[in-house]
């Protein structure tokens, strides 16, 4: 299956998207700064789930085929994930859906709850062991009492099998319904 600006490839039962259009490469590169797409314009399709809402909102009219393909490819999975996450659980492979770019999250640092915003998220593989891990880049704005300080953090979540309680993750999505949402956002 090939389109003018991307193609779908499959290796070891994992679907990849090869970006063929320079404009699309530039756009996707902005969401994945740690990956050099100009050198190797390939990403696991599942990694695009973390930026799907942003792509749809900002570039939906430019690349509707790609966005429709991702939504169609993962529609059943997205429904199941919504049901599971409503019950407070998540599988490792579905972390990109839980932490889309722009999602507000919170974590504990030295016993203090910190509100943060996701700036990047992707599943990666350790080079030596071949084990998967999920990396979340976040940004927090704090204060020293006189000025605001912008800080960046990276959280790593190692692969696990089965379901895990969301509130046991090192970073937890912050929903508008949460009591602490207005205090942290």
UniProtKB/TrEMBL annotation:
InterPro entries membership: DUF7025
Domain of life: Eukaryota
Domain DUF7025 as annotated: residue spans: 85-174
Pfam families referenced in this protein's UniProt entry, alphabetically: DUF7025
Name under which the protein is recorded: DUF7025 domain-containing protein
């Amino acid at each position: 299956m090939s389109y003018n600006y991307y193609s779908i490839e499959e290796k070891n039962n994992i679907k990849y998207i090869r970006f063929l259009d320079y404009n699309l490469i530039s756009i996707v590169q902005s969401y994945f700064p740690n990956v050099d797409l100009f050198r190797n314009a390939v990403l696991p399709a599942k990694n695009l789930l973390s930026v799907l809402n942003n792509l749809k909102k900002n570039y939906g009219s430019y690349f509707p085929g790609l966005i429709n393909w991702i939504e169609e490819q993962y529609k059943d999975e997205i429904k199941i994930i919504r049901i599971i996450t409503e019950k407070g659980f998540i599988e490792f492979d579905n972390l990109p859906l839980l932490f889309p770019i722009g999602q507000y999250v919170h974590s504990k640092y030295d016993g203090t709850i910190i509100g943060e915003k996701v700036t990047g998220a992707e599943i990666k593989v350790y080079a030596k062991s071949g084990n998967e891990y999920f990396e979340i880049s976040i940004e927090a704005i704090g204060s020293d009492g006189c000025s605001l300080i912008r800080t960046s953090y990276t959280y790593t979540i190692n692969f696990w099998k089965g379901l895990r309680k969301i509130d046991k993750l090192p970073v937890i999505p912050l929903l508008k319904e949460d009591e602490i949402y207005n205090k942290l956002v």
